[in-house]
Design brief:
Layout (H helix, E strand, L loop, with lengths): L7 H57 L5 H37 L4
């Protein structure tokens, strides 16, 4: 059945190599299991922290959602300022005319 005949010394060597391979495989498996448990523990911590930070993240999104409307608000404010400038100019002109009328009628006091 075997291509070579095993002598007792060869059989012992094969058994030692086989046992060493099994021990090495067992050690590697134990290391892998240890690493797997560490990964699971870290994943659970991450999940817990994510659950605790989710409400804060939702709050931040809610608080900053108004920033999207800021561009539109700035455009409206610029239009208001542009429309107010001629009114300011007219008001200044009226103020100067009232000062002149006041000076003429009341002797310089308004």
């Amino acid at each position: 059945m075997f291509l070579i005949e095993l002598t007792p010394e060869t059989a012992t060597t094969v058994k030692i190599v086989w046992a060493a391979g099994i021990v090495i495989a067992l050690v590697v498996t134990l290391i892998d299991v240890s690493l797997l448990f560490r990964v699971i523990r870290a994943a659970r911590k991450i999940d817990g922290l994510a659950g605790r930070t989710l409400p804060a993240a939702v709050g931040i999104v809610g608080n900053t959602s108004a920033l999207a409307n800021l561009t539109a608000t700035n455009e409206v404010a610029e239009a208001l300022i542009a429309n107010a400038l001629p009114i300011v100019a007219v008001a200044d002109a009226m103020d100067k005319k009232l000062d002149a009328v006041s000076a003429f009628v009341g002797g310089g006091q308004r």
